[in-house]
Design goal:
heterodimer; A: mainly alpha; 2 domains; two-stranded antiparallel ribbon; globular; B: mainly alpha; about 0% strand; flat; transmembrane helix (chain B); Putative tricarboxylic transport TctB (chain B); membrane (chain B)
């Protein structure tokens, strides 16, 4: 292994490859910051460039772009509530309220520190544990994956506001319904395509995320224009302090540690990725929080910002494990990288260690550099990035609309996707007016395909019996955790009610006595 | 009886789930698939049932406060329709006149709809930007952007 690390260091420290990391991080941050253009678009845009490069340099560039885009996405989430990419949707839940409260600088700095820590911890774990982790993920069976997806869906409670649990559950089912559109991967049967060729591939995640978040948010902000004009303008250009107090660091430190490891593990699992990791980390952190702290979530909680920001970067690092060691993409972005590597004549998989050790180790080493470059590059750039907000809204809004629309178009080159985006935006506006949360729908959509595949395999293997749930200890354990997490909000509410009624009764008794 | 957002949402999803369940029957299956423990219709059927149960639960537990009624006051709907129509027109323009021209028209249209009337600003904020994006995509990144059917018909491919 030591020999491999030195090989990686030698390759990663080549001036040209260092340049690739810097250029990749810079380009990724810039592209990711623009709402509508996320890591998938950013990495896809790099493919033509990598054709002319050495495979190591090519994947180093793409990895830099990936990290940069994930970080850039969080910047637009915090400043203008339009996530640059799906994995930073959760960042906007608490990042945007923080910016509205005049703490944009603090939110951006926290995001930079958390991304750096998450990515670095992820890179260190990857460096020492990649081969072992590949074995662990290999031992996961269909039933374990199914249980894991169920666990993921229980996070839905974290996205539902007060009294909104049923609405959140409905939206999750709606997301699962959308995931069934297109060709069924198990049988090849077209489902809910209504004869349309464009629907055979289903609804793309990028399209759904951009339509329900970027486009809908922009359009809703215009819709409330008159209302906004009456309100005093929020001075978003004033970033506020970028310093974090000792108490704040103490508050987020355990969250960062938990989310780094958790995000990395989620990233390692093939099929999961930075988006799922950010959603789950947020849900987990909310479940860990006390009743009082829980109320702060969604209103500018530092922990609510730290958890997804750390987890998405750690997961981005983790998603390289299945890609490099098994040849299985851990996320949509790594799927594009897999294609680019194969095109360059490198076959990722267990033999990558042997056949292309320079590619394997240099990517891992350059990940650490990538995170360092992002921190050095982004902290000083934050005041300049915030200048984006100084652009007049009549100019900025069409530009955001343009980037959202072309971001989707440049992935598929199909104008039907743009029309589909408009339709989904109209539906999303209607649902938002009825106070339905959007995030559970995305979660349902993301987990839908994997859930169905693994449920199908598990049922076939157990002859249609549900016994697979309790026959495998790992599956049963994950299912029990899921059940506990799902019931926990209800129990907490009941306990809270009992406590309140107890206080009232004591007060009443006191008055009477 | 007060009809609130919950009632409307519940009814909408009840209809959606029922329609989804109805179309589940249209999913084609291979011969004998209906006897398999899991087929292409299994998950959609489960989802349709779950959707119906949850929609009914929402209607039953719906808030009955007058404050929770759907209010559309203060929303500027015409601007939304105009902006989204512009996006649809952009999608058609992409096919007919290509990326560069459609981007310029989209941006000018967007700025105009949102109240920008100064011709100088309209041109400066759209033409150089569109040219830069087009140049970066097609020339620097070597991404093929189709010139548009109309352009091809007029000037050849």
């Amino acid at each position: 292994m030591l020999e491999g690390i030195f090989t990686g260091l030698g390759t990663a420290l080549m001036p040209f490859n260092i340049l690739m990391v810097v250029v990749g991080c810079f380009a990724g941050t810039f592209i990711g910051m623009l709402p509508g253009l996320g890591p998938i678009s950013a990495v896809a845009l790099m493919i033509p460039i990598t054709y002319g490069l050495d495979p190591s340099s090519g994947i180093i560039l793409m990895a830099g772009v990936y990290y940069g885009a994930v970080f850039g996405g969080s910047t637009s989430s915090i400043l203008i509530n339009a996530p640059g990419c799906a994995s930073t949707v959760v960042t906007s839940f608490d990042g945007y309220p923080l910016a509205q409260q005049g703490n944009a600088g603090k939110a951006l700095a926290l995001a930079a520190y958390c991304s750096f820590t998450g990515g670095t911890i992820g890179a260190v774990i990857l460096l020492f544990a990649a081969p072992a982790l590949a074995k662990v993920s290999l031992s996961f069976q269909s039933s374990d994956y199914f249980a894991l997806m169920v666990l993921g869906l229980t996070a839905v409670a974290a996205f539902s506001g007060k009294g909104q649990v049923i609405k959140a559950m409905i939206m999750t089912v709606f997301g699962l319904m959308i995931s069934t559109v297109g060709i069924d991967t198990m049988t090849g049967a077209p489902r809910f395509t209504f004869g349309s060729v464009d629907l055979l591939d289903g609804v793309s995640f990028l399209l759904l995320a951009m339509a329900t978040f970027a486009l809908t948010e922009v359009v809703m902000s215009v819709m409330k224009r008159q209302h906004l004009e009456e309100d005093p303008e929020i001075d978003m250009a004033a970033l506020g302090s970028m310093k974090l107090s000792k108490e704040e660091v103490k508050e987020v430190a355990p969250t960062v540690a938990r989310s780094s490891v958790f995000g990395f593990i989620i990233g390692v699992l093939p099929g999961a990725g930075a988006t799922i990791a950010s959603f789950l980390a947020y849900g987990m952190e909310r479940n860990f929080a006390s009743v009082k702290e829980k109320l702060k979530f969604g209103k500018g909680a530092l922990r609510g910002l730290a958890a997804p920001e750390t987890a998405n970067n750690a997961a981005s690092t983790g998603s390289f494990v299945p890609l490099l060691t098994l040849g299985i993409p851990g996320s949509g972005t790594t799927a594009i990288m897999l294609g680019a590597l194969i095109a360059a004549g490198v076959q990722p998989g267990p033999r990558l260690f042997v056949d292309n050790p320079d590619v394997f180790w240099s990517v891992i080493i350059s990940m650490y550099f990538g995170n360092l470059v992002l921190l050095i590059l982004n902290l000083p750039l934050i005041p300049y990035i915030s200048r984006l907000l100084a652009i007049p809204r009549p100019i900025l809004i069409p530009l955001i609309l343009f980037f959202s629309v072309t971001g989707v178009y440049l992935v598929s080159f199909n104008t039907f996707d743009i029309q589909m985006m408009v339709f989904i935006t109209l539906v999303a506006i209607f649902l938002k007016l009825l106070d339905f949360p959007m995030a559970p729908m995305l979660l349902g959509y993301i987990l839908g395909g994997i859930l169905e595949q693994n449920l199908s395999r598990s049922l076939v293997m157990s002859d249609g019996s549900l016994s697979f749930i309790w026959e495998r200890p790992l599956t049963l354990t994950i299912m029990i955790i899921a059940a506990v997490l799902f019931v926990m909000p209800v129990i907490t509410k009941l306990l809270e009610r009992r406590k309140n009624s107890g206080i009232k009764a004591t007060a009443h008794h006191g008055e009477g006595g | 009886m007060v009809i609130t957002k919950d009632h409307i949402g519940g009814l909408v999803f009840l209809c959606l789930s029922a329609a989804y369940g109805f179309y589940t029957g249209d999913i084609s299956m291979l011969p004998g698939d209906e006897y398999e423990p899991f087929n292409a219709q299994t998950l959609p059927n489960i989802l349709a049932i779950m959707g119906i149960i949850l929609s009914l639960a929402l209607i039953v537990t719906a808030s009955r406060n007058a404050e929770d009624r759907l209010s559309l006051k203060g929303y500027d709907f015409p601007i939304i329709i105009k902006l989204l129509t512009l996006v649809v027109l952009f999608s058609f323009a992409l096919e007919w006149v290509g990326f560069l021209i459609s981007t310029i028209f989209f941006l000018v249209g967007g700025y105009w709809l949102l109240g920008e009337r100064r011709p100088k600003t309209l041109i400066i904020a759209s033409v150089p930007f569109a040219v830069f994006i087009w140049f970066a995509l097609s020339q620097l990144l070597d991404i093929y952007l189709a010139p548009g059917r109309l352009i091809t018909m007029l000037f050849g491919g």
